[in-house]
Amino acid sequence: MLTKAPRGTKDVLPSESYKWQYVENLMREICEFYGYKEIRTPGFEHTELFLRGVGESTDIVRKEMYTFNDRSGRSITLKAEGTSPAVRAFIEHGLYAETQPTKLYYITPVYRYEKPQAGRLREHHQFGVEIFGAKSASADAEVISIAMTLLKKLGLNNLELRINSVGCPVCRKNYNKVLKEFLKEHLDELCDDCKVRYEVNPLRVLDCKVESCRRVTGEAPLITDYLCDDCRNHFEELKKYLDAMGYNYIVDPRIVRGLDYYTKTAFEIISKDIGAQGTVCGGGRYDGLIEEIGGPSMPGVGFGMGIERLLLTLEQNGIEITKPEGPDLFIAYIGDEAKLFTFTLANKLRFNGLKVEIDHMERSLKAQMKYANKLNAKFAVVIGEEELESKKVKLKNMATGEETEILIDEIEKAIKN
Ligand code: ATP
Ligand code: MG
């Protein structure tokens, strides 16, 4: 127990963390180019926020939330998704009163009690983007292009962008009626979950992964045939923007997303290499959410991307992230006096922008040089009595073995050149 992390969690070890840093830096950089600013919200929220903001008929609320009472009896839930906390903060801090739209991004852990498997964890991480206050389809297209740009920059070119429109409360009501009539004839062929969905949110039967349900819904009427003019126009506009950017996409009426608050656009970006956990990114429009949570009536659109799934997809596509380079300099020492000098020199050089390592293990000179090699140091110097005296060192290029005698004071300049 003591030395085993809880089921469904994962340590990111130093041998892997550079990959996380690389993709996270890229996410931040791309968001900066698009003018999205970071928002950081707490690791837990009042449970009511997720009940409201995610919806009681969703898998997340029905069976996946980490909910507990704190010591004073308040019901608390670990962050189960990123959108509703961002909306809560948007309302709480009056950001809706500022110039719109509000463009936000986050990189955050997310907690869901799930059956752990590859690409499905109990603590996973999401990169998410939200734009509040803009109802134009150009906003939908912009968030999609953030995800697509990231994936393309990472070298993933074979992912599928699937889009759909789930309509609005007006046209979805009509469609739900038609869909329910259709499903009624096939109730006994649906899985138990879908029998519940049929009652509370029939649309969600469409994205059930169970084979028998998929067979049934393969014949179901399509929501895209029931959209009102406003929703249909929005969907056509979105396609126009995606075409203009040259993105390939598939209109897939099964993409309905797990969350209740979605309206109009729903989309997923799918990698076919990681099986059932192939959805790397999912998002859509949620024009009713901000008001639902207690803010003004304002539209919104965004996505969440699973970072573990993203890394898994990179791996499966044979895309390697370059390992960080070794230190610029390793300073070996002989004797205590030299160690103190070395320690101080290393500190000064680091302050001036060089990556410098020294030995802390009382290694022999030979072992220090072996260690320098292992660290992949670009240069090495040895400092002993003689060097302290002459203030000169032999700067060794570790790749070529070439040695140049220089003043200790010239090390920084020599390496930077
Ligand atoms: P799924 O259908 O795979 O359960 P979801 O609809 O629950 O996904 P969202 O709530 O939209 O997913 O989350 C956005 C993204 O976060 C997903 O597309 C996926 O990449 C990732 N994700 C969701 N749940 C997990 C999890 N348990 N472990 C790892 N990544 C996850
Ligand atoms: Mg899920």
UniProtKB/TrEMBL annotation:
Signal peptide: none
Assembly and oligomerization: Homodimer.
Every Aminoacyl-transfer RNA synthetases class-II family profile domain range: 1-324
UniProt gene name: hisS
Catalysed reactions, semicolon-separated: tRNA(His) + L-histidine + ATP = L-histidyl-tRNA(His) + AMP + diphosphate + H(+)
Residues that hold L-histidine according to the record: 81-83, 112, 126, 130, 257, 261-262
GO BP term (any one): histidyl-tRNA aminoacylation
Protein name according to UniProt: Histidine--tRNA ligase
Protein localization: Cytoplasm
A single GO cellular-component term on record: cytoplasm
Record keywords: Aminoacyl-tRNA synthetase, ATP-binding, Cytoplasm, Ligase, Nucleotide-binding, Protein biosynthesis
UniProt keyword Ligase, yes or no: yes
Coiled coil: none
Sequence similarity: Belongs to the class-II aminoacyl-tRNA synthetase family.
GO molecular function list: ATP binding; catalytic activity, acting on a protein; histidine-tRNA ligase activity; transferase activity
Enzyme class: ligase
